[in-house]
Amino acid sequence: MMQVTGAGAAALLALTACSSSDDDSSAGSDSAGSASGKLSGEVTVFAAASLKESFETLGKQFEKAHPGTKVTFSFGGSDALAASITGGAPADVFASASPKTMKIVTDAGDNAGEPATFVRNQLEIATLPGNPDKVASLKDLTDSDLKVVLCDKTVPCGAAAEKALTASKLKLTPVSYEEDVKSALNKVVLKEADAAVVYKTDVKAAGDKVEGVEFPESADAINDYPITLLKESKNTDTAKAFIALVRSAEGQKVLTSAGFLKP
Amino acid sequence: MTSSDSGKAGTVDTLSGGPRRRARRRGGAAPLPLLVPALIGLAFLVLPLVALLIRAPWHSMPDLLTSTEVWQALRLSLVCATAATAVSLVIGVPLAWLLARVEFPGRGLVRALVTLPLVLPPVVGGVALLMALGRNGVVGKWLDSWFGVTLPFTTTGVVIAEAFVAMPFLVISVEGTLRAADPRYEEAATTLGASRFTAFRRVTLPLIAPGIAAGAVLAWARALGEFGATITFAGNFPGRTQTMPLAVYLALQNDPEAAIALSLVLLAVSIAVLAGLRDRWMTAS
Fold first, then answer.
1. Cβ atoms within 10 Å, residue A20
2. In this predicted complex, what is the ipTM?
3. Model pTM greater than 0.80?
4. CATH of B61-119+153-284, one of 1.10.3720.10, 1.10.357.10, 3.90.1150.10, 3.40.50.800
5. What is the pLDDT of residues A103-147, one digit of tens each?
6. Do A177 and B241 touch (CB under 8 A)?
7. Interface test with A, best of B72, B233, B250, B252 (most A CBs within 10 A)
């Protein structure tokens, strides 16, 4: 019974969010807010590190469209976030960087409703500005003179990199397996490593501090990003409205401009 | 400095090499206002460890304990923590002596600087080390171009990160012991013609040995559990820079049971070492 009404409300919210995105003015978003009733209170969103920039933008948009609400984020490695959710961390929404990490949460029964894929992300090589080592392909990274960092296999970006390497039968020994994608990227930003295999979105977010090199093998390892409402949520209406915004055309515009692929 | 008889008696005992100074009589039952908070404190510290033991996956323990990766990480942890303690001893004890025995302007400031790594979040410490000793760092740049030495992503890097975080414990402990030790013994030695260094080596060092040992144990324990500065400065590579805390953290990501088991291994080793040393040394300071 509860679930039926919940799903209905979600559908309604999704509809209003979509209709509001047809016109770009903020007045449109405001009307969406009033149409879905009074949204208020705080929502806590646990999101993969790679979503930081786009979700912060979306959070600000949401707070502006629904005065009286507050969106708080906790960004980190999807696995660490999943572990803290199953460990009882109070959160309303979980957006992870891989179905595998989402499964940790759904297996524990901590989700409310089916997780939905809202974006996808592709790998890219991040090199030093100007690409001084002339990296042009994934194979170039296997050069033993290069200091390459990968994400650890336990985090989605590391699993994806491994998949791409295995698919192309390459053996790559990095200097370090980093604990999440941002720390892998930072090793290149700080010029401690020559290259890192990270997401397209991370290369984009780093601006001119790194240079991105696309590689065809990345097509073999595209990560789906699922998002879900959590069972422990104390503010389901506002949380659902935020998920609706992420999945709306408006939200997708922010995400694709950050380099994400549409689901 | 201290004129109390008990203080002097203590130092004399230490001079004669007897670490057993705990034969003091217990004066009746412990008063409740002390006993209750003490027991709460004990429970607070022990409860998480008990929980770890209760939830431990005992059935999969044998598999984990025989895996080469675990032994690799454990051995690396022990080697690096011990090396970091040795580094801290070699440069930390003289530093403590300087702070305790030599009057110089800005001594208070220097003392505050020495304790800085204690308040710095370890990850920030790791970033600071990268800025200083990284391939592109203030000093690291020259190490790289003159000697071809790069420290990040190496086992040496792990030792450096651990020493950076652990040395303040040693310095504070040794400095405290030095201040409590009677300087008149040293003065007597110099009056009798010993140089200041000889006095330090022959008189001061034996006098403060228990304090040094206590500080070394603290530093070793801190280095063994070090995570933030290590993963930031030295990265994570099995066998080279992946110490036990790093292995535990990464195992926690997809196999919490393995993480608990690894934590227990690290705990067992640290407890064995600390319990072996504590009764002898820790109470001395």
1. 26
2. 0.74
3. no
4. 1.10.3720.10
5. 999 998 999 989 999 999 999 999 999 999 999 999 999 988 899
6. no
7. B250
Smallest CA–CA separation between B54 and chain A, in Å? 16
Domains of chain A: residue spans and CATH: 2-120+224-257 (3.40.190.10), 123-220 (3.40.190.10)
In degrees to the nearest 10, what's the CA dihedral of A88, A91, A97, A101? 20
Closest chain A residue to the Cα of B134, Cα to Cα: A192
| Secondary structure (H, E, C), A227-255 | EEEECCCCCHHHHHHHHHHHHCHHHHHHH
Which residues does B155 contact at the CB level (< 8 Å), separation at least 6? B76, B79, B80, B234, B240, B241
What beta strand segments (E) does B53-165 contain? none
The DSSP letter of residue B144 is I
DSSP letter at A222 equals: P
Enumerate the domain spans of chain B: 61-119+153-284
pLDDT at B28: 73
Pairwise CB contact (< 8 Å): A176 & B136: no
